[in-house]
Amino acid sequence: VEYQLKEQLYNWRDDVRPRVIGKFDEKGEWVAPRGEWLLTSKADFSVSQVARVIASRVGRLVKDEKTCDQIRDRLAFLDAKDAVLKKAINTPFRPAFYCSGCPHNTSTKVPDGSFALAGIGCHVMATAIYPEMNKLTTHMGGEGAPWIGQAAFSKIPHVFQNLGDGTYFHSGYLAIRATVAAKVNMTYKILYNDAVAMTGGQPVDGITSVPMIAQQMAAEGIKRIALVTEDLSRYADRSALPAIVTLHDRKEMDAVQRELREIAGVSVLIYDQTCAAEKRRRRKKGEFPDPNKRMVINEAVCEGCGDCGVQSNCTSILPKETVFGRKRTIDQSSCNKDYSCVKGFCPSFVTVEGGTLKKSKAGVAKTNEDDGFGALPEPVLPPLEAPYNILINGIGGTGVITVGALMGMAAHLEGKGASVLDMTGMSQKNGSVTSHVKVAKSPAHLRAQRIATGEADLILGCDMLTAGAQDAISKMRPGRTLAVVNLHEQPPGTFAQNADWQYPVDEVRALIMESVGAPALPAADFIDATKLATALMGDSIAANLFMLGYAWQKGRIPLGEAALLRAIELNGVAIASNKRSFLWGRRAAVDLKRVEKVATPVQAIVVQMPQSLENVIQKRTAFLTAYQDAAYAETYNALVARVRAAESAQGLGNKLSTAVAKYYFKLMAYKDEYEVARLYTDGRFVEQLKSQFEGDFSLKFNLAPPLFSKKDAKGHLVKAEFGSWMWHAFRMLAKLKGLRGGTFDIFGYSEERKMERSLIVEYRSMIEGQLATLTPATLSTAVQLANLPEQVRGFGHVKEKAVAEFRAEQARLLGKSTQKQAA
User: Fold this and answer.
1) Does the pLDDT at position 579 exceed 60?
2) Statement: residue 658 has pLDDT above 80
3) At what angle do helices 529-537 and 592-599 cross, to 10 degrees?
4) pLDDT confidence of 32, banded at 50, 70, 90?
5) Are the C-beta atoms of 170 and 125 separated by less than 8 Å?
């Protein structure tokens, strides 16, 4: 528009031609800008940015003093808001991420030394998730074509090119035809996921199938076609496939790609795995097989190394904080039963076949059944003297957009005006999603759809991380904004690749409270809605309707209950469950303690507090006694006591003692075959299973016994499934723990066990050396050295790599310590 306007004014006389102020202020010129930018040329504008520009333009023209004061007050508020927003910069970003069980978690990985090119489709996210493997992108239908020009000028002999089945059908096959004609070396990885997943799971706009793609590729002159699938039984009948196609299980993905990258010319790998989101949708409708099989993690055996996340890239693997450090657990509500997490090299994964997930009896009670709560008080709803602004923050794929839609429909049913603006970005799960909801007496009272800076009346934070982001914080104003925030600590998808990611719960909570003026006013409510809703309803998807009910009962939503419940009915999905979730939210707003008791009748919801040093030592002494014997535990106590005495003598506190108490124990309690067996049979894992499952179920154990397991192409042991008979083997092994480290310890002769025992001796020697030179100046380095075993996690090759990194960092810190002593 600016270009067109200037073109129309260009030939006017100088004395009448106006100056067009657009990108720059008066000091700047369009051709050779010398002034200041009025609005950024990158990204989008915020309401406050536009407001400042308008104020700067009209302020000089306004003569009315009252209006000038209003402008000044608004600008002063925006300036003050900037100071708060600077704090929100530190709130971690929640990027869009692949669903749990998404085929791209496997299909976009390439062998070491190779990389893949991106294009249009969900696979483009791999450029951010696996940036070392996936690079560059191009337009739809051009996938692979840039390599025709680049290949002649590159020392890279071969590339992979990702291509979705929807793009293939649209125009991608033409690019393949061009690359074949150009005779470049590349492999197309064509994902057949049976849906246009990137824009919401629509069917591909035409008829296509794996055999059709394979037949067309063969007709185009492709000489090597590999078909990789999650289920080889789909192709028991090969009659529809060209003879040149080879079949492979997805476990062979790396080996297949290594073979294809050595082939001259264009080759094709068809990866057949249904979109995870589509699987979930179809299973709910009974249109897709739903295997009665789930993966669970024995949290006691788990080392928290994160290899399961590295292998599967799955967002259903969550951190589990325990007294012995961070472990892993599987969110059964979001799990899409892909089972690729079991590839993590760890004996803690167990397959549960049969049974059902356990949920509170409250969740399965009939809607009209009297459960003793009785009638709830009716809240006083907010008046609608002016439009009421609600900002909903949450995680994509959890029903955030649905909550906004329900409000919009409820307002329509009541004859009110409503505006619902959804900010979703890529329509993927796990990313940041917001809905701007405005409710007014009538549509005529509504103006802009976006909520302006400081103009939110309610922040419905279904995800605390998103509610503490800059966009949400900018909408809050003390004295006006109220907040209801879910305390559940759901990590972003990047946690799958970063085992040590920490949720900044205290910082984000404090930022939200500051922004709404709490605790001076009863402006913010924090509740672990996900934990309660999952316990009550058996599925974490119930959390957002629970939040809606909680906020409504608190009198923070200007819509009637009847209209909201009718909107749930009209939505037509899980009506009874959603209504009950809404009701439980209402009840939690009235009597939270009682709802917590119903949700977890056996045990109260416990908030973990920092442990005292005495408690840390006591727990670990008891553990090591059970691990081996009292003498072994006394060896631990002796070193910890020496460290405490040395620290106390110099008045240095207990940081070093705490570190040694935790990590000397960690090294001493290494998980060999005897210990894994003990941790499966000491009763705790059985209790864990009973708390999660009910009905008749059986177990299979996913293990890689070093004495007789196969190895893969990298020389790593390969896990296999063992039946319930392993219980007997575990019980026998647990009783043989007395052999540990002795002549008859057949497992103790392996390189891994020798390494683990040597680490204990090395650590003890290192700590004793630090005690000999301990001063206030050397304390910090000593504590860092004592904490290093935190990184020694995992089993087999995973642990071997961690130990190498541990020793490299240890050498660096010891050198630093020597320098300090010399100084």
Assistant:
1) yes
2) yes
3) 50
4) very low
5) no
Alpha-carbon 120 to chain mean position: 23
Give how far the C-alpha of residue 293 lies from the chain's centroid of Cα atoms, to the nearest Å.
23
Helical ranges in 19-103 per DSSP H = 47-58, 65-88
- The two tokens of residue 686 are 């059985």
Query: What is the Cα–Cα distance from 682 to 680, expressed in whole angstroms?
Result: 6
Q: What is the predicted pLDDT for the residue at 428?
A: 60
The more confidently predicted of residues 667 and 359 is 667
- Give me the residues paired with residue 519 across strands: none
How is residue 99 annotated by DSSP? P
CB 147 within 8 A of CB 161: yes
- Alpha-carbon distance of 50 to 474, in angstroms, equals 14
The pLDDT tens digits for 474-486 are 999 999 999 999 9
What is the residue-wise DSSP string for 124-179? GGHHHHSTTTEE----TT-TTHHHHHHGGG-S---EEEEEEHHHIIIIIHHHHHHH
Map 500-568 to HEC letters.
CCCCCHHHHHHHHHHHHCCCCCCCEEEECHHHHHHHHHCCHHHHHHHHHHHHHHCCCCCCCHHHHHHHH
CA separation for the pair 171, 119 (Å, rounded):
12
CB distance 359 to 538 below 8 Å:
yes
The Cα-based distances of 593 to 117, 293, 587, 589, 727 in angstroms read 54, 35, 10, 10, 40
pLDDT band at 206, cuts 50/70/90?
confident
Indicate the SS3 state at residue 323: coil
E strand map for 338-431 = 349-357, 388-395, 417-423
| Assigned token pair, 699 | 């177990």
End-to-end CA distance of the chain: 68
Instruction: Write out the H or E segment, with its range, that includes residue 636.
Output: helix 630-649
